[in-house]
TrEMBL record:
Taxonomy, superkingdom: Bacteria
NCBIfam families named in the record: IS66_ISRel24_TnpA
Listed PANTHER family: TRANSPOSASE INSC FOR INSERTION ELEMENT IS2A-RELATED
Pfam short name (any one): HTH_Tnp_1
Membrane spanning stretches: none
Entry protein name: Transposase
Amino acid sequence: MDSGTVEIITGRERRRRWSVADKLRILAECDAPGVQVAEVAARHGVYRSLVFQWRRQARDGLLVAEPTPEFVPVRVAADRHGEAIPEPEPVPPPPPSPRVTAAIEIELPDGIRVRIGEEVGLVALRRVLAALRG
């Protein structure tokens, strides 16, 4: 008797366009120790014969990563009228940002304020307070 269950069998997707980066990433997965090409291919929905074809292309230098764009130094030697452009003055580095430190501010009855940073030791603080009282 039929149980009413329908089984859908799916195959691998055909004619997918893989980017060079995707191909190289899949090949890198295949190169890991103990990994089987068939497992990696199945995980990505690609035939293992295609993975071997990509491997052959990579070995033959036909499948290579696109070069990473790089910045190169540029120097303008002359303006459009052929006159030399003076080199700009080097820009000094910005001053270091002030270090935020903990501080205590004490206001004495006569209005004098004493601000003490965390780098001041207890002995020095006692001397300053004694001098202000005296």
